[in-house]
Amino acid sequence: MVVCVHLPRFELLVAAGEGSQVGPQTLRGRPLAVAPPTGTGRGGGAGTAGVGEVSQAAEASGVRRGMALGEALARCPQLVLLPADPVRVAEQWEAALQALEAIGAAVEPARPGLAYFEADGLRALHGTLAATLAAARGAAARGALARGAVAHPVRIGAAPTRFCALACALAAPSRRPLVLEGEHARRWLATQPVGLLGYREQTAMLPEPLARLGVRTLGELTRLGRAALSDRFGEAGVLAHGLARGQDRPPAPRRVQERLEESLEVGDASSGLALGRVLGVLVRRLLARPQRAGRSLRTVVLSAQLAAGGGWRERVVFRQALADAERIRLALSVRLLALPGPACRLGLSVECFGAPIAEQGVLEDRDARAWSARRAARAALLREALAQVRSLAGGQAALRAVCVDPASRVPERRVVLTPIPE
Amino acid sequence: MSARALNRPRPARVRCSGPAPAEVDGERMQSLRESWLVEDRWWTAEPLRRRYWELVGCNGRNVVVFHDLCSGGWFRQSA
Fold this sequence. Notes:
Oligomer: heterodimer
Number of strands of chain A: 13
Largest sheet of chain B: 7 strands, antiparallel
Structural class of chain A: alpha+beta
Order of helices and strands of chain A: EHEHHEHEEHHEHEHHHHHEHEEHEHEE
Number of helices of chain A: 15
């Protein structure tokens, strides 16, 4: 039995949560939408980008997720746009996933607010399916609330396949799960609207043409036949046919690994060259963490809280796994150019590690060996001295002065003091 | 711990004669070397507007002070 955990309008609730100008108390009843990200529109400009998640009041006015901003505002002139906050969304979603994993679930995250796991293996742990679902509901709600100001509603569905479980979660009432089994699940799925296909990336483009063709339910879709759907929609049509008949692959749980993260309040170094220097500090601090254990970095996530509200987040996959601070900084500093506005906090976290890379020079060279030995001895002495100074005078006794913006007209912005990594 | 700035402004007692400072922390100023205006972060809720004065004291030492045009206070700072 596959369980689907759905937290409706997750991104919208996070955007309207802590730090928002609108606030959660005013969320109810107002037409809201997550503003399109700057500079990532379909036509390359911000003006053509689609809006993000929308509130029920906005939906009632005809605004839909992904709709062009101009069209959304034309349909609903009172629409309130909230700046997207992908950083807080990722944080709160990660907390919810970790809470689900804490009850023993091997979770496959589909997107923020939507996750699946296989429940059969958890019955021994929690007793019954109902107890497992109750534990999942509590864990997801607690996890999402742990880092946010807004309580997220949780909808739970359980069915033989992921797609059917998703349909159950979307149809489930707010306080109890919808559980369907066997042939009954298949029959029920046939009565559901084809709009459900929009939740799957591969079939997201199908609901609109199917609606134009007069196909309203998944049952009507299956009656069209696999060959006709393949002829008309290609691979997506074949997949949609399988999904509508209750066929889907089992959940593919994510690989759990430790999370390494560094962040820094950037103060006045909010953009340009100064922010690039802060990035350099972050990279060095991340590489100095003992948990890295000599491993290289394969994929990292660069994130920023923007001074004007909202956030920015970019996943960077290196061409080859890196452990050299300067190369990592160079690769990431290019991404900072895409920052939509001045930042107040910059963060860097490791999403995937590469193989360990030896960081010394040529091992056979006697001079190089002697040099690296001297360097290691000096580093050990410095570490010892640092530990002694800190134990005598406190954690903030030993700091490093970093030139962040030497050409700034405001003198206190030129140099900042940062902690020396241990 | 987050990063913190070096060379933060320190409050100063300034007596003016006309627009320029004549005395800083009890020390008489002999001549004015330069004056400049710094305006920044005007797009935020905490804009920065400062009129800097670089002066030479009676003992020949350089002194840099600024008048915060938002709060009205005087501060000393190494420029």
